[in-house]
From TrEMBL:
Molecular function GO labels: lyase activity; metal ion binding
Organism in which the protein naturally occurs: Paenibacillus faecis
Stated name of the protein: Cobalamin biosynthesis protein CbiX
Record-linked Pfam families: CbiX
InterPro entries: CbiX-like, Sirohydro_Cobaltochel/CbiX
Keywords tagged on the record: Lyase, Metal-binding
Length: 262
């Protein structure tokens, strides 16, 4: 590289959706995070699939066209148990082989990649989850928080899902002051069993909180359909929109930037 000046840039990667509102919410959150970054630091929001012209390669190309040599990649996913994290890291050359077979091809990227972490568990996110659930709470001493995530049927990935969501449930429970906090996954499915246990066997009111980035099929259909006939409270509120998610993103980006300067 010689004496060529180094230039940092940020690539936020999320899943993508055919729903324009889903994409808009991500864009708004990224813009709010960008407002806290140093002036002139290039940032792009890109998507794993579906959003034409804004896929990961498009984002890399746009940033490298602006002279970016140090690419800070923020995977905007709720769990390191997502198989997508594995395949994106592999496609970016961060890891030599994927843990799970993927048809995702290697991405063209000449910048040095600094790969960040997904959400998993964080005090800011615990506060966010509780703010979303709080309106459902009327008698905290008789209520249980049940955090529901997508999960994974794949060995290794499932354990990462469980580790992150159980820790986040614990921290959200501490913030909330509710009697208990627990978690359930859609894969392998434990949602109905957990709600039944807390409501029918233990006699608590269950406040169900979906751990999904943005509202969609899972929050609107998958979770409610699995709980038909049971007693629970549910707003269906996903993490977005909420300013605390942008604060989490900003913290992650600044943390990686700090390590670049050392």
């Amino acid at each position: 590289m010689g004496d060529k000046p180094r230039q940092a840039g940020v690539l936020v990667i999320s899943h993508g959706s055919p729903d324009p509102r889903w994409v808009e919410l991500v864009d708004e959150a990224v813009a709010a995070a960008a407002a806290g970054l140093p002036d002139g630091l290039p940032i792009e929001a890109s998507f794993l699939e579906t959003v034409e012209g804004r896929l990961i390669q498009n984002g890399i190309d746009r940033l490298e066209a602006q002279g970016v040599t140090d690419l800070i990649v923020l995977p905007l996913f709720v769990s390191s148990g997502s198989t997508h994290i594995d395949e994106i890291a592999y496609a970016l050359g961060v890891k030599n082989t994927p843990e799970k077979e993927t048809d995702m091809e290697s991405l063209r990227c000449s910048a040095r990649v600094f790969f960040g972490d997904p959400i998993d568990d964080d005090p800011v996110i615990a506060e966010l989850v509780w703010e979303k659930v709080k309106p459902l709470s009327t008698d905290p001493a008789r209520e249980v928080l049940l955090l529901v995530g997508h999960g994974s049927i794949h060995d290794g990935f499932r354990q990462r899902w469980e580790q992150g969501i159980s820790s986040l449930a614990l921290h959200t429970g501490e913030v909330s002051g509710l009697a208990h906090a627990d978690y359930a996954l859609l894969n392998p499915d434990s949602v109905r069993r957990k709600v039944g246990y807390w409501s029918e066997e233990r006699g608590f009111t269950v406040l169900v909180a979906p751990l999904f980035l943005s509202a969609g099929y899972f929050t609107k259909t998958a979770i409610p359909s699995r709980l038909a006939g049971l007693t629970f409270r549910y707003s269906g509120d996903a993490l977005l929109p909420h300013p605390l998610l942008s604060r989490w993103m900003l913290g992650q980006i600044l943390n990686i930037m700090g390590s670049l300067e050392r």
